[in-house]
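R.M. (postdoc): so does anyone remember the format we settled on? I'll just put the structure tokens first.
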């Protein structure tokens, strides 16, 4: 009987973890690459718009 309960609990836990992974992947709205700004690049400095740092 203990083996059956353990298998059922393991299956239930695997399902819960799967749902959590799917929900995190599908509904996580945080995308750091969309908010990451490095500043002006070398072409901008080459044009002379900004002083050299």
């Amino acid at each position: 009987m203990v083996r059956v309960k353990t298998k059922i609990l393991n299956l239930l836990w695997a399902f819960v973890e799967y749902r959590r992974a799917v929900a995190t992947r599908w509904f996580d709205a945080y995308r750091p690459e969309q908010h990451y700004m490095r500043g002006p690049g070398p072409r901008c400095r080459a044009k002379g718009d900004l002083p050299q740092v």
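R.M.: ...and that's the designed sequence above, right after the tokens. Also worth knowing: The chain is about 70% helix and 0% strand. The longest helix spans residues 2-27.
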